[in-house]
Please model this.
Amino acid sequence: MPTREGSLEAPERQPIDWRSPDFRDRASLEAEMERVFDICHGCRRCVNLCQAFPTLFDLVDESETLEVDGVDKADYGKVADHCYLCDLCAETKCPYLPPHEWAVDFPHLMLRAKAQRFGDPGTKTRWRDRLITSTGPLFDAAALPGVAAVANAAAASKPLRRLGERLGIHPDAPLPHLQGRKLASRIPAEVGPGIEARPSATTTGKVAVFTTCYGHHEPTAVEDLAAVLNHNGVPVRVLHGAQCCGMPKFELGDLDAVADLKARNLPLLLAAVDDGYDLMSIIPSCTLMYRQELPLMFPEEAGVARVAERFFDPFEYLVLRSREQLVRTDFRTPLGKVAYHAACHQRVQNAGARTREFLASIPGTEVAFIERCSGHDGTYAVKSETFEAARKIARPVVNRVRSAEADLYGSDCPLAGRMIAHGLDDGSEAVHPISMVRTAYGI
Model:
């Protein structure tokens, strides 16, 4: 059978064999990187997705042979440095993923490169990278008396930001504004406990919210999600004891830390599922972690599969229930024109543009839909060496929002929203779409 040039079949992401000795073997890794890079060099359809592909293609074009074999293998790491595992190349662009015989999975290859470097005793992982990916402990510390105020003051101080550059944090990078109160002090574990759940064909009608690290320090979106669900007859349990989903450590290549966080969270999530709850998060990255990445890391664990099966994106959930007339349409406030950015980690979940669909159903609301990377991408927009690349990636999105002249703008990913607001630099703030819906309901 001749080799096929491409594939029109749906991509089949394969399990991540991260515990195999071969996974972190440098020689094996470099051989596979050379093979895949050669295929990418001959295709180049992903050149506009992120900085990883232009970096690779520049290395090839500047080599003596103008082919991958002319690239110094010591430079392969430069490509991995610019991959933030958004998965867009794999899920939306690449025709060579399995079941194609070439079996290209660029993000999982870059994950392998990150894991090899992280676990290599000869390669020192920067203290900064370990720190900024330890989001749980960082936000726990921010809840201590006075810490949030000091951190916010430091983030607003140009001299201190320049001092932070010595640690590898870019002085112009957008940083969170910490509120200093943990979510548990603002919202109870049970919200709407008297509401009688109404199951649908695909949902149980009860939701347990995975709070996320972000939800702890900027809890408004969690509160708004609970209010919108309650308004639509869905009782809510807030999982206050949850740890980080593991995505920051996943992006760093610290897969043992990911496994540890999975082990801590799984009993809490399974208990909610056993109690008849569906699962939900306000951050697409956390949802993706439980729906895709952890099942691929732990394909043999039935508990991981059970959690993945019950995990929903908020707007996917609302649209599914609206199709069975289980969502209220008593909107009181039109939103006007909304510039809505679809987050990369939401797009690759293949659930469809449900946020756009739901927002557009609100009377008096026009949605300008933006499907491009915001450039924030976890820690990528924070680090000194990648901030300028992040800002370059964000520029088309910022321009689209500016030209839309919208009344509101935002993204399902609060980090993306912050990056857009940073690029606009006009004093405005992004609004999470679930907060827009609460405003539209007038609740």
About this structure: The first helix runs from residue 26 to 43. The chain has four domains: 21-119, 127-167, 183-320, 330-441. The beta strands are 190-191, 207-210, 236-239, 278-281, 311-312, 336-341, 365-370, 408-411. The chain is about 45% helix and 5% strand.
